[in-house]
């Protein structure tokens, strides 16, 4: 009878110790959420696009509300279009303090939208904590290196875009 009580206490202790680990795994924040993929966007001024992107990142809990202004500052100091019809708006270095957790949002402009020196079809807003910023840029650069990969994403469904940016491997 006494041994049983000790065993139950040991089992309870084991369960208590395991629970936080399981919760941490299941509650791991996502870099991209389905709601943050906006398809069929119509052309508009890039400042408006950046503000929308900042709002999406803010409403998803990735950044503080002021991050959108830091994204605009970045754009004025160094344009974020990188070729292949892609723009990667993100905040200036001083805005790192406004990032709560790493995340991205995607806006697709099938007909393109003017980004100064080129029309872009794919706008990916980035908020990266610490070194996550460079890792996110690396993933995007790897997956979107070829123009046909960008065109596939532009023609994709939300689910396909989600898989493209969240799964390891090549673009589908």
Describe this protein's structure.
The protein has 172 residues and is an alpha/beta fold. It is built from 6 helices and 5 strands. The chain has helices at residues 2-26, 46-59, 67-77, 132-143, 147-154, 158-166, and strands at 37-38, 81-83, 86-87, 103-114, 119-127. Strands 1-4-5-3-2 form a 5-stranded mixed beta sheet. The longest helix has 25 residues, at 2-26. It is globular, with a radius of gyration of 20 Å. The termini are far apart.
Outline the secondary-structure elements:
Elements: H1 2-26, E1 37-38, H2 46-59, H3 67-77, E2 81-83, E3 86-87, E4 103-114, E5 119-127, H4 132-143, H5 147-154, H6 158-166
Parallel strand pairs: 1-4, 3-5
Antiparallel strand pairs: 2-3, 4-5
Helix pairs in contact: 2-3
Task: Note the beta-strand portion.
Answer: 15-25%
Oligomer: single chain
Strand order of the largest sheet: 1-4-5-3-2
Largest sheet: 5 strands, mixed
Distance between the termini: 60 Å
Query: Given the C-alpha coordinates, what overall shape results?
Result: globular
What Rg do the Cα atoms give?
A: 20 Å
What structural class do the secondary elements suggest? Answer: alpha/beta
* Fraction of helical residues: 40-55%
Mean pLDDT figure: 85
Topology, number of strands? 5
SSE succession = HEHHEEEEHHH
Number of helices: 6
Uncertain stretches: 1-28
Q: What's this entry about, in short?
A:
The chain has 172 residues and is an alpha/beta fold. It contains 6 helices and 5 strands, in the order αβααββββααα. It starts with a helix and ends in a 6-residue tail after the last helix.
């Amino acid at each position: 009878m006494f041994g049983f009580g000790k065993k139950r206490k040991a089992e309870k202790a084991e369960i208590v110790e395991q629970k936080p680990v399981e919760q941490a795994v299941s509650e791991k924040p996502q870099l991209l959420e389905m709601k943050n993929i906006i398809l069929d966007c119509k052309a508009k001024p890039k400042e408006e696009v950046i503000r929308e992107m900042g709002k999406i990142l803010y409403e998803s809990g990735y950044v503080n509300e002021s991050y959108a202004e830091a994204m605009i500052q970045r754009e004025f100091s160094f344009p974020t279009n990188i070729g292949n019809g892609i723009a990667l708006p993100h905040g200036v270095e001083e805005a790192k303090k406004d990032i709560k957790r790493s995340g991205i949002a995607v806006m697709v402009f099938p007909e393109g939208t003017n980004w100064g020196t080129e029309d872009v079809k794919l706008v990916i807003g980035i908020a990266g904590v610490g070194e996550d910023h460079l890792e996110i840029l690396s993933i995007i650069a790897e997956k979107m290196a070829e123009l046909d990969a960008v065109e596939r994403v532009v023609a994709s469904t939300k689910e396909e875009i989600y898989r493209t940016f969240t799964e390891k491997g090549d673009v589908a």
